[in-house]
């Protein structure tokens, strides 16, 4: 029984770690890049909202908030452009 | 199943070593399939550790005494719940739990980041598997939980240490270990970011839930330990500056500092060196915490040499510190801040000050914890540092910390103007002043430290309430929602901010409880006979009658003997009855007689506690069993003679022994000796637990994932799209 448990666990672990070595996929690479950009976009949106709330509750002066907001929005636009390029619709969306 | 368990541990070690190699080879050569294989090795580690843990758990549940660990840490009289949790009462079991939790959390973060942080994650995988390999190697070569019992199988085990038979004590270790192992995640990603030279805030954002989770679990573990100390140890306190307590507090403090300072890196690109140093230090302190508990070094520096774990742990800590220092020093150029501090009157400066205070607290506690060992190493004599030493440093630093926790959320970023200060601070200062008046009217003026704490807590609660009100107003202006909906929307969409504010309120309540209970408690140790009473904190507490009981386990075997007291507590015409006990558990010592072994083993206290929002009435009893000594000796002699003569069949012997013990119990209640009581009336202790619950609620709010703001393709201009998707005006 002990040996059976060890053999089963060993086979499962070997199958698990060996699976990626048997296949290579470029789709995985694209998925990874998209996921990274989407995470960056969501983080940027959070920063924009956060700065807005800071401004409205008196922790950011009007001038600082406007400067920060402009910079954050520009960064968000850049991320969106890169996302759309990845999705193959970059130029048309930007113009639209 | 001993062989299967040991086999799983060897497999776990093997899979760790393979995963380290695969991850590093993959990232160095750019072959992503090897990186994926390395990541899957972490899942494999989780699987093998889980199977080993289940095998051990099953052995404890079915009292399989062929496992040496089950024999030494459980028994058939141990209740099922405690048998299930006795696994981590042992060194070997707790190391296995550490490995299991580390592998589970590592699997979770690596699965979550499988498509992100591609340059960093493989190095982080190698670090996490390196830690896994360390613990797996300890389990395989030094502290195996799957050792076989030597000699014939015993009919009964030694049993779980009675002090640990408390629900919070059984949940406490998994909470602490979850905290320690979760702190390994940001540590590993910080190392990965440094090695890969990807030092922006991406890795911080991805690991933030794990850092907060570590902070949450470690905090829960610390509070559960305090609660156990208060209700089980019979001394009346909840914190004793014990080295094990300190070991868990230190990484929690640096983790708290990191959670604050990281906001400055995200907002202003500042403090990169400080942040990465803090998270590396927290990772090292988490391992140090495990080392302090497991090496035996806490008892004496000489125990370090005797322990099998001291040298390996010290080697690991040395490697972690040396590696961290090298990485930070060699990446100094990339870690340079993007901005400088604009003003000392700014949120950045307050956060920095808050960090300094937290780190100073950690340093003071570290020195107080290690000073006895350092002194022993140099002088050969053991010096001791008690709570007054710790209080001298921690009380003023904590007061400053509470003040900063009130100022931080109110003050402006970059530079606070006079208008900003007026607008944000007037109302909270008013609440603090009101708290001062109320505290003085209630007679708190005699204790300046406590008085200052009450004022500061009022300031914090006032400030956080003001922030909520202003946030709701802003939300209503933007979304035109009714107040209740605006509150929910505001918190839901800004979980991190309002979760943090809730944590600050909870900490203020918790510190109010600590300040009140430590400054205004009334405590007396008295010796009473039935019918006599003592007055404590305005309560009259009468020792009504003694109680004594033989308590059997579910399988019918005698588990313990309880000697206790029934107390009548009265104040202003209101009367309540309370009961406190001292439980005596039998020792397994082979040299002890059949009767005396019940009085020579471990004993635990069941305290009498009448808890309330205003104050707790707390009592524990230390029964005087010396009068029973002659009868115990006589019982031992009679049974020894009968055993020597072989005159009594086992069953008959058990019946007679039970009768003898019943006689002992009767003699205690019929002719009760004086009993020593510790009586304590302590104000606002309940607020410590309420404050802790509020803190953890706040942490859960901050931990809960934010709703996705984007889920659709947009065809409008990017700027309008940002405004729409971020839900703020463009």
Main traits of this protein?
heterodimer, A: 96 residues, mainly alpha, 4 helices, 83% helix, disordered C terminus, B: 730 residues, alpha+beta, 5-stranded antiparallel β-sheet, 4-stranded antiparallel β-sheet, 22 helices
What does this structure look like?
The complex is a heterodimer of chains A (96) and B (730). Chain A is an all-alpha fold and 96 residues long. In chain A, 83% of the residues lie in helices and 0% in strands. Chain A contains four helices and no strands. Chain A has helices at 2-18, 26-56, 62-87, 90-95. In chain A, helix 2 (26-56) runs antiparallel to helix 3 (62-87). In chain B, helix 2 packs antiparallel against helix 5, helix 8 (202-232) packs antiparallel against helix 21 and helix 18 (495-520) packs antiparallel against helix 21. Chain B has 22 helices and nine strands. Residues 300-304 and 709-716 of chain B have low confidence and may be disordered. Chain B has helices at residues 2-29, 32-61, 68-73, 80-85, 91-112, 121-142, 167-196, 202-232, 243-268, 272-295, 301-306, 310-330, 347-379, 387-407, 418-441, 448-479, 483-493, 495-520, 629-645, 650-670, 686-703, 718-725; strands at 522-528, 533-536, 539-552, 558-571, 574-584, 603-606, 608-610, 615-622, 675-683. In chain B, a hairpin with a 5-residue loop joins strand 3 and strand 4 (558-571). Chain B is α+β, with helices and mostly antiparallel strands and 730 residues long. Chain B has a five-stranded antiparallel beta sheet with strand order 2-3-4-5-6. In chain B, strands 1-9-8-7 form a four-stranded antiparallel beta sheet. The radius of gyration of chain B is 29 Å and the shape is globular.
